[in-house]
Amino acid sequence: MKIAAGVTAVRIRKYSFETIKTATDTFSESNKLGGGGFGEVFKGVLPDKREVAVKMLFRRSTQGEKEFKNEVVVVARLQHKNLVRIIGFSVKGDEKILVYEFLPNKSLNFFLFDPTKQGQLDWTTRYTIIGGIGRGILYLHQDSPLKIIHRYLKVDNILLENDMNPKIADFVMAKICGMDQTTENTSRVAGTEGYMAPEYMELGQFSVKSDVYSFGVLVLEIVSGRRNKSFLSSGLNLVTYAWRLWRDKSPLDLVDRAIAGNYPSGEVTRCIHIALICVQKDPTDRPDMWTIMSMLTSNTMSLPVPKQPGYFIPNTTPYQSTLRSSSHFINDRT
Ligand SMILES: Nc1ncnc2c1ncn2[C@@H]1O[C@H](COP(=O)(O)OP(=O)(O)OP(=O)(O)O)[C@@H](O)[C@H]1O
């Protein structure tokens, strides 16, 4: 398959199902890297000895084919240091498979939330990861041949290279928008609890600003080493907790104990400040990714005072929702 991407043509290969089956040792449990709402991921070795990650979409998923084509078409056209690279795909009947470059460090969650590995993420590494994710999103929103809203940003979808360079993965939910299009609506709200902007969960409205919201949550998680949804203290999640600390003028209480005392307080405070600007309730108050990146890279640019953050508790949803796993949220609105 050859798909034009701006001036560059991107080649992705179609593999036979047998090749993929052999590469993954018949999708063996020992090769399984993980799985979520849309499919399972296995490590594989191609006949040319290249290590790959093979994503097999769930067969019975009614959205399978659509999501599959979406991911192939979208990812094949994207080329950036902070986006995972697609190598090929395979289709056999109902089986739909995507083949990606393999990243040996797997995803950010394996480091961030594991007490034995958190220490490997010193502040400099965390700051570099934040910058890389931001550059990846900026490329999607503005610099790539297409304007793309990812809609599925979360630590589990941030893969890490050996040098800890982050790469955004999982484009099953990605949406290509017209360059002048600002907001879209969907009747099928899907994503991960804790990362979805309130207007997306409540009204099905998504835009680049809903990705900005997810970026803000990611930054708070990277700074604190805690998951937004699992961190509940007296009814607070990470976003509301960070906001309260900010208001009480003690934002640094948020910082992960694994890096206690080992960070530049000014830079960390600025990151928390920027994250709170990203998670503001009203999407029009959230700056675009270009402005966010300018804020991150300049120490002199003045930052607005963040307004109250937005968040949404799925249990209060007025319409039927389906949780495919504890955190995976799909909401078909009628
Ligand atoms: N290219 C890759 N290289 C190495 N590991 C990968 C790669 N792609 C995915 N993985 C690992 O497989 C796991 C499962 O991937 P998957 O895309 O199903 O993500 P998920 O976030 O767990 O699920 P979902 O996105 O469907 O909710 C990831 O968390 C990651 O650790």
From TrEMBL:
KW Zinc (keyword) present: no
GO biological process: defense response to bacterium
Annotated GO CC locations: plasma membrane
Annotated binding of ATP, by residue: 55
Keywords of the record: ATP-binding, Glycoprotein, Kinase, Membrane, Nucleotide-binding, Receptor, Repeat, Serine/threonine-protein kinase, Signal, Transferase, Transmembrane, Transmembrane helix
Keyword Kinase (UniProt): yes
InterPro entries for the chain: Kinase-like_dom_sf, Prot_kinase_dom, Protein_kinase_ATP_BS, Ser-Thr/Tyr_kinase_cat_dom
Topology of this chain in the membrane: Single-pass membrane protein
Cross-referenced Gene3D superfamilies: Phosphorylase Kinase, domain 1, Transferase(Phosphotransferase) domain 1
Top-level taxon of the source organism: Eukaryota
Single GO MF annotation: ATP binding
Entries under Pfam families matching the protein: PK_Tyr_Ser-Thr (PF07714)
Primary site of residence: membrane
Subcellular locations according to the entry: Membrane
Protein kinase domain boundaries: 27-301
Protein name: Protein kinase domain-containing protein
Organism the protein comes from: Microthlaspi erraticum
